UniProtKB/TrEMBL annotation:
Gene3D superfamilies: 3.10.20.30, [2Fe-2S]-binding domain. Coiled coil: none annotated. The keyword NAD does not apply. SUPFAM superfamilies: 2Fe-2S ferredoxin-like, CO dehydrogenase ISP C-domain like. It holds the Pfam family Fer2_2. Residues 1-75 form the 2Fe-2S ferredoxin-type domain. This is Xanthine dehydrogenase YagT iron-sulfur-binding subunit. It comes from Sphingomonas jejuensis.
Length: 168
């Protein structure tokens, strides 16, 4: 099977029953993507596939053949953290850090959805323009990513600071 992981082509033989999460963690040594519930309920395993957020525990690796997968390890460029990674540090958007990779990947995908004008349950204006990422909008859109430590205020602050100007 051939796919692109964090910008690099990868060829791997994989049992068709292996999840994308297990391929990333166990075969490709990318431990940033976390196994939380392994049932799609917590968001710890969120990665980007062709720029869209997915729960890697719910998909079989073979489903993503020929696709581009980005994990938290692939977000930094030229030795510098992604601006959202830095914002999580600046706003204390984590405590134990277990959910952080999934939160960050999910937020990047979520911001792209808002730029495309995809509404959420709380979106007031449904005209298809980019959706401003207010705190309420971010909380709704990120509700599938759980943090047992309760670092939500820092997470929301990091996301809104990073992407507020992107979607106006």
């Amino acid at each position: 099977m051939d796919l692109v992981i964090n910008g690099k082509p990868v060829s791997v033989d994989v049992d068709p029953r292996v999840s994308l999460l297990d391929l990333l963690r166990e075969r490709l040594d990318l431990p940033g993507t976390k196994k939380g519930c392994n049932q799609g309920a917590c968001g710890a395993c969120t990665v980007l596939v062709d720029g869209e957020r997915i729960l890697s525990c719910l998909g079989l690796a073979v489903q993503y053949e020929g696709r581009s997968v980005t994990t938290v390890e692939g977000l930094a460029e030229d030795g510098s953290l992604h601006r959202l990674q830095q914002a999580f540090i600046d706003h204390d958007g984590f405590q134990c850090g277990y959910c952080t990779p999934g939160q960050i990947c999910s937020a990047i995908g979520m911001a792209a959805e808002a730029r495309r004008g995809l509404p959420s349950f709380v979106t007031a204006d449904l005209d298809g323009d980019p959706v401003p990422l207010s705190g309420e909008e971010v909380r709704e859109r990120m509700s599938g990513n759980l943090c047992r430590c309760g670092a939500y205020n820092g997470i929301v602050a990091a996301i809104t600071e990073t992407f507020a100007e992107d979607v106006r």
